[in-house]
Each structure stands twice: as C-alpha cells, then as structure tokens.
Amino acid sequence: MGGIVVYNSDTMTQAQKEVLLKAARTTVAAAVQGEAPPELAVKMEGMEYGGMFVTLRQGGRLRGCMGSFSPEPDMLATLQQVAVSASHDPRFSGRPITPADLPGIEIEISVLSEPEETDDPLSLELGRHGLLIENPAGRGCFLPQVATEFGWSKEQFLARCCSEKAGLHAEAWKQPETRVLLFTVELISEC
User: Fold this and answer.
1) Domain 116-184 architecture
2) Residues 94, 99, 105, 111, CA torsion sign
C-alpha cells in the first residue's frame, strides 16, 4: 500500500481524510472477521455530503463496492454502514474477503455531493460527474471514475447505468419518466 491519494479534494482536511481511512480499514477488518464495527472515539457530524461509497480492491481488482445516498448526520456512521456492506458485497459471495486477504485490500472512499437533477444528461462531464438514474421501474448509479476507467462516451455511461445498474432499457435515460441526477465525489484512497 502506498500513501494517501486524494482527488477533487476541496472540502475536507487531511486529518479528516485520515480519520475516514482509518475508520474504514478497522471496520472492514472487523466485518471480515465476523465482528461488530468498532466503537469510534470521534464523530464527524455537521459535514455536508450527499452520500458515500466504499470500494475495496485487491491487486487492482474489485472485491467490493457499496454505498448509500441516505447519509447519516455523523459521516463516520455512514462510512461504517457502507464499509460493512462492501466487505460482504453479494457479487463476491463465491469468493468473500478473508482475514488473510486484509493486508492486500486497498480502500477507496467516495464522499458524494448532493445529487442534482439535470434536464440535459449530456451536459455531464466524464470523470467529474457520477450518475444516479431513477425511474419507476428501477434505480442505479455509477461513480464518476467508472466512465474514465472503461473509456466510455457520455452516451455509453448513461446507457450502461440504465441497463447494468438500474435494470432498464439502455435508452431509458432519454424517457421523460426517468430522472437523471449528477453528483461529484471527493475521492480518498490508500492506493
């Protein structure tokens, strides 16, 4: 593991970021070992944010990613909830993270801005905006880094969020009953 790498960092202090990473690491370790999340001696209340995701990687490969758009007043409480969920991501139930895997697990925390609806989905900026697609038939999201990681165009980003995450037709983002919301993230990573 390398040092702390932070992208789009403009709202939190370095000390706050370090508290989040330490809390995420201890929470993931506890969850993988079948223990309750540890009691944290600090609180991070009153910080403005629209949600949070925790992504776990091992050797650069995804091992878990879960999040919430319903944040708790205490940012650390939200962090612990999503870190536990990421530790047990159902997509990896056939190969769960084990205690032996923990030293190689890299943690990435995405602190989200409040999602804002857009009337022009193609106004999104790849690599800057994440997507939240809402439709009566389904809901799904992608973090901003997904589009750049896979080299997608704006149309591909929107279509794949609809089809792969929300369970909708790929062109559902163009339908009037579909809401497209954009958000940004403050990305905090150990790797």
Assistant:
1) 2-Layer Sandwich (3.30)
2) positive
CA 25 to chain centre: 15
Q: What is the pTM of this model?
A: 0.89
Q: Look up residue 178 and give its amino acid.
A: T
CATH no., domain 5-112:
3.30.700.20
The Cα 49–Cα 32 span in angstroms is: 27
Domain with CATH 3.30.700.20 in the chain: 5-112
- At a CB cut-off of 8 Å and minimum separation 6, what does 92 contact? 63, 64
Give the pLDDT confidence of 121-179 residue by residue, as tens digits: 999 999 999 999 999 999 999 999 999 999 999 999 999 999 999 999 999 999 999 99
